[in-house]
Fold this sequence. Notes:
Layout lengths: L13 E6 L5 H21 L5 E4 L5 H9 L3 E5 L5 H5 L1 E6 L9 H8 L4 E3 L16 E2 L3 H13 L1 H18 L2 H15 L1
Parallel strand pairs: 1-2, 1-4, 2-3, 4-5, 5-6
Helix pairs in contact: 1-5
Amino acid sequence: MAFFSPPPRAAPIADLVFIGGMDWLANIDGIEWFVRSVLPLIRRERPKCSLAIVGRNPVRNILRMGERDRQIRVTGTVDDVRPYLWGSSVCIVPLRIGSGTRLKVYEAMAARLPVVSTSVGAEGLALATPESIRIADTPEEFAHNCLELLRDSAIREQLVTVALETIVNRFTWEFVAEKFEAILSASY
């Protein structure tokens, strides 16, 4: 858990952050949908809302997003995703195609960052909604959840607290090791 704990003062990077390989179809589709259908709704209320798209091998369409919009930063490969998590206000997981492990959700939560995801983006994760994660499948719902978390630090903190408690109680190496040890002990 300490690995993802934010420093006392993280450098601001973006309002919203997306983390994932940008040569992966599910991630490409999700971020294209978000930029095309959700971000304009958010910008009606927050015209300068910024987005960091962090991940290896961004395809040309993704690179163009950053070229056309100064508030969208496309990083490509980074040595460490944690500063991008720590320097953002909300992590978005706008996946519409099912694939992958969804570890980005747990990483964001461990970094004390609230998450707004589609149902597909959080599929298979044992998380309580809306207490630990916000789920939204339409552009309007997704924008509403992002805006609420961007404007209300108390709601953001409440979501982060519940999510972090879930991570600590169910997904740390210590917890997993204890469960594995119990399984081994039961086998003998």
